[in-house]
Design brief:
about 210 residues, alpha+beta, 2 domains, four-stranded antiparallel beta sheet, disordered C terminus
Length: about 210
């Protein structure tokens, strides 16, 4: 075999090796992207319920907490098995969010407690606490809207829409996001839920699905 032939073979081998590495990297990136796309924070109360905890803690994630928590925190909470663990988890959860609060300002935990009390007074429906309804969740996360109005139904027999307006200059909420300019709520079968444009015969149990 000549020296030139050896060089050509070596060059092709290096080219094949580089192509194989690039292909493997592309595959890993694609798989990683697919995994990140599939990994979504659960929203439904059934997905956020921890049956291993007592009544006080089993539904702790349902409502605004689920909007504030990240995927790892939600997964960690759903793995808890005792109320003692839940207490420690909640203390750590709030300590992390209260850490950067300026002196003489209300902490995120303070705001959460105040708004939760208000939401329970105003939005409770039957045995369902107001703080875990869509309106309650919105109030707790972003505070009082700038204005509340009502839109007339577009079809006869349809309920009116309750519209909450937030100003363009509104500050970020407890979830770290700015509120949308407008939230619409509609009453369906005794439950007031976030209106997403779906037919109004939608199941009222499909609550707490914010689209930020």
């Amino acid at each position: 075999m000549t020296a030139n032939s050896s060089l050509r073979i070596a060059h092709r081998s290096r080219g094949l090796s580089t192509w194989a590495v690039a292909s493997a990297l592309a595959l890993c990136l694609a798989l990683g992207l697919a995994a990140s796309t599939e990994a979504k924070k659960p929203k439904d109360p059934e997905e956020l319920f921890n049956p291993l905890l007592g009544v006080q803690w089993s539904h702790w994630l349902v409502g605004p907490i689920a909007e504030m928590a990240d995927e790892k925190e939600i997964d960690a909470f759903l793995r808890l098995t005792t109320d003692e663990e839940a207490v420690a988890f909640a203390e750590s959860f709030w300590a992390k969010r209260n850490a950067d609060t300026a002196v003489f300002q209300k902490t995120p935990e303070d705001l959460f407690k105040l708004r939760t009390e208000e939401a329970d007074k105003r939005f409770s429906e039957g045995t369902f606490p107001g703080s875990r309804t869509d309106r309650g969740t919105t109030l707790i996360l972003y505070g009082e809207p700038t204005e509340i109005t009502f839109e007339s139904p577009k079809k006869v027999g349809y309920p009116p829409l309750e519209v909450w307006e937030y100003s363009k200059s509104a500050e970020k909420g407890l979830d770290g996001k700015k509120p949308k300019r407008r939230y619409r709520f509609v009453e369906i079968k005794g439950s007031t839920v976030l209106y997403t444009g779906q037919p109004l015969r939608a199941d009222p149990r499909a609550r707490l699905k914010h689209r930020n």
